[in-house]
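User: I'm putting together a small comparison set for a docking exercise, and I want a reference complex before I start. The sequence is below, and the ligand is adenosine-5'-triphosphate. Could you produce the 3D structure with the ligand included, as C-alpha cells?
Assistant: Of course. I'll restate your input first, then give the C-alpha cells for the complex.
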Amino acid sequence: MTGAVLQIEDLRVRIPVPGGRWVGAVDGVTLAVGSGEIVGLVGESGCGKSTLGGAVMGLLPGGSEVSGRVLLDEEDLRGLTDEQYRRIRGDDIALVSQDPASSLDPTFSVGAQVAEAIRNHRDVSRRAARERAVELLGIVGIPDPRARYADPPHRFSGGMKQRVVIAAALANDPAVLIADEPTTALDVTIQAQILHLLRDLTVRSGTGVLLITHDLGVVAQVCDRVAVMYAGQVVEQGTVRDLFARPLHPYTRALLDSQPAAHHRSGDLPVIPGRVPDLTEPPAGCRFASRCAHVHDRCATAPPVIGMPNGGQVACWLHQAVTEEVR
Ligand SMILES: Nc1ncnc2c1ncn2[C@@H]1O[C@H](COP(=O)(O)OP(=O)(O)OP(=O)(O)O)[C@@H](O)[C@H]1O
Ligand SMILES: [Mg+2]
C-alpha cells in the first residue's frame, strides 16, 4: 500500500523461553496501516497480537529475535537504538493498553501526566504544556478539564482514566497509535464512546490506528480494515465490509460464528473447538488444519497467501482456484 504510515513486512518475532526453546509468536506478518485509517487486528488469545504491537513499539521481552521490516513513514524502525526508540515512542508512535490504571501514576495528577507526556518530547514551557494538556483532556471528553487537571487518577472512573491515557497517547499527534484492547475493561456504553473518540481523532489528526481486540463487534463498529491473526500469522485481511459479508478463511468464519452479538459484554474468548497450537513447535503446513472442517491432504503444506479481486488476502488452499481464475 502506498501512503501507509505503518508498513510491516514479513515480520517474525521469536521469544526465548526456558529450556533453550523459542516461541515463534509472530511468523511472517505483512500488514499496512494508512493515514487516518483504523485497522483491526483480531484473533484468539495467544495468537501473537500483542507481540506484533510490542514489535512496532520496540517493547518486546528481553532476548527476543526480530526479523523483517517495520516502516514508520518509510523509515525502518528495526535499525533504531534503544535511545532512538525512546525518542519516537510517545511521539511518532504511541500505545494505549487494556489497563488504564497501570499506565497512570497514582501519585501525580492526571493533568500533570498528560503535560509530562508533552514535555518529554517537546521543548515547551510548563505553562504551554499545561494549557495543551487541558485542551487534550477536553478533546477526549473530560468534563471541566481545567478543574479536573489537578485530580489524581483515583478520582476518575475506569472510562475517564482510559480517556486520560488516550489524551497522553495523543499528546504529540503520533503518526501511529497501537491500541491493545483499549476498551476491554470498560462497560459497553463507555466502550462505544471511546471507540467514537478514536474514530474522531483519526479523522482530525490523520493518525493511523492498529486496534487489537478479540471482539469482532468492536471491529465492526469502528475499523476500516481488519486482519485476522491465527497462531502468529495473518490468515486473512480485507475491508471490514468485505470480510464480514464474505469471510473466506475457515478460521475467520469460525470466529464470526462464535462471537457474541456486538452489543453483549465482550472479552470472553470465542469458543471454537480445539486450541491454538503451541508456538514453540507449530505444526507444519496450515496451522489451523487440526481445527478446520475443510481440512484436506494439501493442508499439510503451508497455504499460499492469495490476493482476491476485491483487494483482500487469504492464506488458505480453498481459495486457490479463485486466484487462478483471476490471473
Ligand atoms: N514474555 C513472554 N515470554 C514467553 N512467551 C510469551 C511472552 N509474551 C508472549 N508470549 C507467547 O507468545 C505467543 C503470543 O502471545 P501474545 O501475548 O502476543 O498473544 P495475544 O494474541 O496478544 O493474546 P491475548 O489475546 O491473550 O492478549 C503466546 O504463545 C504467548 O505465550
Ligand atoms: Mg494480547
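The mean pLDDT is 91. The chain has one domain: 4-92+172-326.
User: Thanks, that's exactly what I needed.
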